[in-house]
Amino acid sequence: YVLESKLTEFHGAFPDAQLPSKRIIGPKNYEFLKSKREEFQEYLQHPELSNSQLLADFLSPNGGETQFLDKILPDVNLGKIIKSVPGKLMKEKGQHLEPFIMNFINSCESPKPKPSRPELTILSPTSENNKKLFNDLFKNNANRAENTERKQNQNYFMEVMTVEGVYDYLMYVGRVVFQVPDWLHHLLMGTRILFKNTLEMYTDYYLQCKLEQLFQEHRLVSLITLLRDAIFCENTEPRSLQDKQKGAKQTFEEMMNYIPDLLVKCIGEETKYESIRLLFDGLQQPVLNKQLTYVLLDIVIQELFPELNKVQKEVTSVTSWM
């Protein structure tokens, strides 16, 4: 019955499997327990108890010492009883001994277990309770569809969104690199639907004007000359370590001065320094710079020779058809 109360707390009551009542009138000897053996076996063989840790502890020789013996044999404070008996005997002086002895006997007996009933138990965040909560046995007991439940409990603020356009790029860099505060990120997300297209149209117009200025004849000549000298000219002496450090320091200071003061007030000086340091260190990786150069070279070649794109699409379509 102690096991039943423990199982009821965790698994709930089983209407189709009940133990016989503890208040049955009659001798509770071995013959009586033997007559109720089938009912006990039927209760222990309930399907929902097949993976119960409580039942395994109860049936193991040493598993139920701490869980079940506390309710069966409560602690009796013998010292307190021995000290209280002489004082009560002296006070009574031999009078009313029979009720005193009966009360004394009742106080020494273990209290009768109360009828068990389901109670609300709050699980503390322990490792044992985590095993019960995340065990496969207790997953999807109602056999609900996972897709509907996921749609109802979906958190749209934690949804991963695709980054597209200058506005999204700036938001991503501000959130990841510059660590803008939450209020500013939420403000930018709220105004995204209003200013995204406007900002991207202005950016396209601004870049188009700059490219037209860059592609003028005299500027193209100087750019081609600089590119030729950087790739094919072998007469230039390699820079010393001191010159490289001086150039790196100047570049870092220019990057620090490029950040607007309004953004610095929002993120702070320390965050500004760490963010610029992250960007600066990221651009000093030779392997990544080489990969970036190849990617940009592919884009330039595709813009100069658009027919290469058509050939590649035809080859892809033929391969997928085969």
TrEMBL record:
Top-level taxon of origin? Eukaryota
A GO molecular function for this record?
Answer: phosphatidylinositol binding
Domain spans labelled PX: 3-61
User: What residue stretch is flagged as signal peptide?
Assistant: none
Which InterPro entries does the protein's record reference?
A: PX_dom, PX_dom_sf, Sorting_nexin_C
UniProt xrefs under SUPFAM superfamilies? PX domain
Which Pfam family would be a valid example here? Nexin_C
Q: Where is the Sorting nexin C-terminal domain?
A: 183-286
Q: What is this protein called?
A: Sorting nexin 14
Species of provenance:
Homo sapiens (Human)
Give the gene that encodes this protein. SNX14
